[in-house]
Amino acid sequence: MEDSDVIDGLNIRFLKLFGMWKAVNEYRNTGKRNLIIKIYIFGSFLLTVPAAIFQTQSVFTIEFDIQKATFMYMHTLPAISLCCRIIVFWFRMDSQCKLYDLMRSDFFNVPERLRARVREVYKDTNRLSNFCCLVPFIWNTGIEIWFIAFPGVSVEYIQHRTGSMSAVTTGKWKILSGWYPFHVEDYPYYQIVFVYESLCLLWAANVMAMYFSLFYQILMCLYAQFVVLGFRLSNLKVDFIDSNTRSFKTSDENETNSRINKELNEILRDHQKLLRYAEKLRSIYNPLVTMTLGIGILILIIGAAQLLLGKTSDPSFLFQLFQIFSFQFIEMSLFCFGSSLIETASTDLHFAVYCSDWYRADVKLRKAIQMMMVRARKSTNLTAIAMYPINMETLGSICQFTYSTAALMSGMVE
After folding, report:
1. Residue 125 vs residues 9, 102, 108: alpha-carbon distances, Å
2. Is the dihedral of CA 388, 394, 395, 397 positive or negative?
3. Inter-axis angle of helices 115-149 and 189-234, nearest 10
């Protein structure tokens, strides 16, 4: 797929920057995974496996309480999220790459008289898509800079202490909360650990944002296609504006019936085509969304518990906690927001039909369009655990559940 084939206004420079645009196109053409994809997999597991081994070993080596345990594993969960995304993309790459057809500007056969206006619709919807994909990159960059410039995890606390980390004010500080089977505060172990954790943070933050963009742009392209389909339906008129003369044009009755019938047939076929892609996307994204929401809920609970249990006013610690907390909350919010947009756009087709001149078509097509209206009453959205619909109401329920669980944990400890 060439750059000129992409729908108007969609920014793919992030995928190009990380080489994934080339990787996807090569797989679509040859069916083979190129070196770039393998490098991301190898690099991710090379950096995360040692940390996972040490974290598991720490359970049997150092002393824990609930506050220390939740704090130590709060930094581990994003790494698990990254590995899950890589696994989903690797094993569902064939289906995922087929979904990139949603990015094509010729996904629908748009009438000549509407093409200029459809391009504007694409540009308007893709501004939102570009912004949503930019947010994780900006936020993750802020996390990288702050965590590396101002390391906020006490080595002494991880190695020897329990309770609140804010009570520890001496010793050296590192970036992440991982435990290591040697004296980290000694030379050269401290320097080695600092470099290793910097690499882990830089790699994970950038690759996670890239994979988010990889998945999220397809989601927003599905939304854009639903919006365009609704626009075509609402502009199905007997009298229409000629794109060349910019004046109303009225055809004779036979020509009008022929044109409306032809456009209605194309819209019905495009609607069925779009529903097939939506069903495929829901199937592929179900494990991804389930994992994102599941890990997100855990991080939100841990973050809220740390605030309730820590009882500290240290601005540096609170800011780092807020960054981790908000990082996962942003991704969860964007997935819920994107699913809500698709849900709204898919059901808006029902109203778009009323804005058209569908009732002037012949009897068979009127019956077909009525069936389309009935189908549009059932919304299209993402699901978690294969059946739970995802939308902004879901996000509200997650926030309520997070606070209740964190408050319960705090009360039990006290």
Report:
1. 8, 14, 16
2. negative
3. 160
Query: How far, in whole angstroms, is CA 202 from its chain's centroid?
Result: 19
The SS3 assignment for 263 reads: helix
Each residue of 4-51: pLDDT tens digit?
A: 889 998 999 889 999 999 999 999 988 888 899 999 989 988 888 888
**β strands within 212-294, DSSP E:** 239-241, 248-250
Query: How many domains does the chain contain in total?
Result: 1
Q: Compute the C-alpha angle 52/18/278, nearest 5°.
A: 85
User: How far does CA 237 lie from the centroid of its chain?
Assistant: 37
> Which residues form the domain of 193?
3-413
**40 close to 279: Cβ distance less than 8 angstroms:** no
Using CA atoms, how far residue 9 sits from 84, 111, 258, in Å, is 30, 20, 33
Q: What is the pTM of this model?
A: 0.88
Q: Is residue 329 a contact partner of residue 296, using CB atoms and an 8 Å limit?
A: yes
d(CA 174, CA 143): 14
